[in-house]
Design goal:
- By secondary structure, the chain is of the alpha+beta class.
- The protein has two helices and five strands; from the N terminus they run E-H-E-E-H-E-E.
- The longest helix is centred in the first third of the chain and has 15 residues.
- The radius of gyration is 12 Å and the shape is globular.
């Protein structure tokens, strides 16, 4: 559970990075997620995300990022890969 997650006008990379840091902090540094952004065509470069959330699971935050950025995730063995739809 993430106590608070707030970003305004962030890129997809910034939003994902902030989520990773929030997960690390909420877990007491026991969980360090690996996120990889695959965007070879540059579709996500101009996308901006704004979220203000309190007391939600990390998966819900990721879902909100997906809905605003039109992305999807693939859960590999050692990383979560974020891709444009």
């Amino acid at each position: 559970m993430i106590p608070a997650y707030q970003i305004e006008g962030a890129t997809v990379a910034e939003a994902i990075s902030a989520l990773g840091l929030a997960i690390e902090k909420a877990s007491g540094d026991e969980i360090a997620p690996n996120f990889v952004i695959q965007d070879p065509q540059g579709k996500l470069a101009e996308t901006r995300i704004t979220l203000q959330l309190k007391k939600v699971p990390a998966k819900a935050i990721l879902d909100y990022i997906h809905s605003q950025a039109n992305t999807r995730a693939r859960f590999d063995e050692h990383a979560v890969v974020i891709m444009a739809r």
